[in-house]
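thought: user wants a sequence for this fold. calling inverse folding tool.
action: design(structure=
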């Protein structure tokens, strides 16, 4: 669609509420937005282009068309926008990253001995969920605190049911050892309930309750239990000492502050419980097409879809559209009144400003890191003699065990950072023995000859190895007629026996490695890329090997599916022990008939199973 046609569609846009859908040349939806006044909002894209930030201007270059959906009210537009984003998942609508990137904690109180689990998604169950946490590090720190104070089990259900002796956590007094030591379920449940209160920021309530327990134990002359409770109280108090009182009214609040600039945005969430600041988390995103108030509104909507912890008050650093509609949705989700508020004075305003200051500091760190990445890319460009910046770097590595289960990996770094959504894995077939050249040919051919047209070409391809491996890669690219399409470099490990102190970078046509003495950051970036490709390939190869190793003789027996196989292996701890059982013993498991039990023993032992031999021991 030409610029003239887009201009004509813009001229016909009404001054009404609705939703607009930005599309690329193939009709794919890039962005969905809403507006009280469609004409006015679209003018910021198609009339005031020169005022747009560089990143927004670059994104607008992708827009070839747009559609409008007029609604009766801005509230309808808000709901429609949310539904369309859910349906199409447009690339430039992402505020929160995908749920897998923001961990949560889960506790299922319906279990006899509930464990604290790290999960990525909230299921439609009756378990308790806490989070989302901004990083794995923050969730790990929380779990570490919980374990140290309340000693909940960490092991998964399969480990818990099959462990024969307590693990290290019991030895260091971070677990009650209930996998092997008898613990009263009700007593354990009290530990869990205390942990839940702690996670909800009710530390003072926990301490009050524990002091009553300590007094009761002391009165019963159970001095050992009283001492254990006392230690728990001290541990919680040490955590509380690090929490700051920020709200004298002792109410529960989430305070959200927004900072933005140079195409980036950061929302900082301060969780205030009983007046104490118990957690501060930062959520960065690309600003893209969005206005600041859109960023904050979209964040609120998505954040509370990923948590069941919704306080009665949510303070925002700036006003957002459809505040009443959002407030109503949060109230319905929480099952009680939720107030969404942009304070303009007083104590609440101070809290909102505090969140903004934290967001600005985090944004400053992100932008500084981007500047460093950009400087490193410029350094790498000069080092390799490239015409353009190596914005997209691809690295390939293969992994196999003596030629078995060969696989390869492709990792991608975009603007100096891992772009994990662009990683690819390759299963290598029909190649006998260990043949690195054949592997290289196979992988590069699949990547460049058969890859989808929309997959961008790299600016730089890195090969793990020295001149030999680089020569192989160049030969393959010559066969494909692509040797001049991008830069290719080989990265060889240093030879300590020769006194080499740094890895070496080779380029085609050069016998000696490049001098990297003045380009250490560029070398370090290539080492990161190489090590990531190696890690990714080895991890994939290990999974393939484990999958092949997990296949057992049970898989070939008719009537044995995954569920019965799991039951048998869990009960008898392996095929060899199943062989020693009797048909009657196998029939104790649900779904195992006599005919199937006898067939299992016949196939595993290679001979008919004769009755109930005394040698067959009972499990």
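)
observation: tool returned 619 residues.
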């Amino acid at each position: 669609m030409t610029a003239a046609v887009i201009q004509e569609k813009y001229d016909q846009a009404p001054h009404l509420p609705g939703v607009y859908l930005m599309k690329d040349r193939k009709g794919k939806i890039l962005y969905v937005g809403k507006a009280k006044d469609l004409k006015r909002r679209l003018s910021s894209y198609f009339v005031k282009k020169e005022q747009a930030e560089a990143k927004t201007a670059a994104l607008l270059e992708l827009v070839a068309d747009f559609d409008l959906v007029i609604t009766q009210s801005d509230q309808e537009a808000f709901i429609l926008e949310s539904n369309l984003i859910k349906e199409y998942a447009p690339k430039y609508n992402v505020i929160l990253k995908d749920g897998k990137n923001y961990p949560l904690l889960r506790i299922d109180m319906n279990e006899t001995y509930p464990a604290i689990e790290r999960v990525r998604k909230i299921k439609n169950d009756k378990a308790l969920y806490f989070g989302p946490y901004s990083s794995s590090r923050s969730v790990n720190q929380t779990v570490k605190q919980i374990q140290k104070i309340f000693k909940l089990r960490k092991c998964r259900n399969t480990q818990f049911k099959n462990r024969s002796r307590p693990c290290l956590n019991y030895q260091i007094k971070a677990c009650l050892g209930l996998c092997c030591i008898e613990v009263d379920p009700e007593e354990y449940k009290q530990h869990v309930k205390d942990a839940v209160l702690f996670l909800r920021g009710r530390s003072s309530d926990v301490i009050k309750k524990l002091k009553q327990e300590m007094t009761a134990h002391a009165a019963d002359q159970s001095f050992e239990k009283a001492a254990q409770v006392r230690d728990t109280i001290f541990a919680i108090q040490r955590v509380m000492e690090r929490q700051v009182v920020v709200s004298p009214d002792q109410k529960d609040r989430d305070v959200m502050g927004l900072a933005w600039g140079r195409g980036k945005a950061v929302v900082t969430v301060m969780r205030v419980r009983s007046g104490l600041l118990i957690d501060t988390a930062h959520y960065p995103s690309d600003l893209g097409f969005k206005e600041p108030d859109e960023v904050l509104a979209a964040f609120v909507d998505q954040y509370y879809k990923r948590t069941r912890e919704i306080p009665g008050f949510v303070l925002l650093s700036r006003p957002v559209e459809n505040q009443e509609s959002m407030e109503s949705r949060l109230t319905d989700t929480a099952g009680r009144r939720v107030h969404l508020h942009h304070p303009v004075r007083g104590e609440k305003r101070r809290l909102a400003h505090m969140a903004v200051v934290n967001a600005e500091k985090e944004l400053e760190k992100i932008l500084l890191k981007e500047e460093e990445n950009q400087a490193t890319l410029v350094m790498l460009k000069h080092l390799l003699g490239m015409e353009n910046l190596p914005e997209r770097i691809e690295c390939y590595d293969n992994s196999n065990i003596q030629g078995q289960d060969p696989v390869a990996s492709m990792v991608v770094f975009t603007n100096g950072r891992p772009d994990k959504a662009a990683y690819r894995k390759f299963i290598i077939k029909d190649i006998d023995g260990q043949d690195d050249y054949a592997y290289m040919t196979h992988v590069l051919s699949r990547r460049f000859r058969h890859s989808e047209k929309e997959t961008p070409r790299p600016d730089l391809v890195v090969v793990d190895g020295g001149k030999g491996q680089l020569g192989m890669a160049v030969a393959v690219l010559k066969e494909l007629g692509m040797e001049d399409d991008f830069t290719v470099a080989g990265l060889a490990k240093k030879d300590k026996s020769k006194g080499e102190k740094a890895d070496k970078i080779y380029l085609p046509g050069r016998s000696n490695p490049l001098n990297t003495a003045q380009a250490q950051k560029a070398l370090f970036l290539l080492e990161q890329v190489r090590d990531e490709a190696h890690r990714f390939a080895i991890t994939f190869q290990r999974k393939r090997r484990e999958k092949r190793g997990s296949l057992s003789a049970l898989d070939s027996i008719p009537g044995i599916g995954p569920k019965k196989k799991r039951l048998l292996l869990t009960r008898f701890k392996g095929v060899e022990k199943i062989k020693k059982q009797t048909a009657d013993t196998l029939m104790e498991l649900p779904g195992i008939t006599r005919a199937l039990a006898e067939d299992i023993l016949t196939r595993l032992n290679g001979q008919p199973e004769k009755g109930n031999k005394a040698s067959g021991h009972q499990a």
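thought: summarizing for user.
answer: Here is the designed sequence. The first strand starts at residue 18 and ends at 23.
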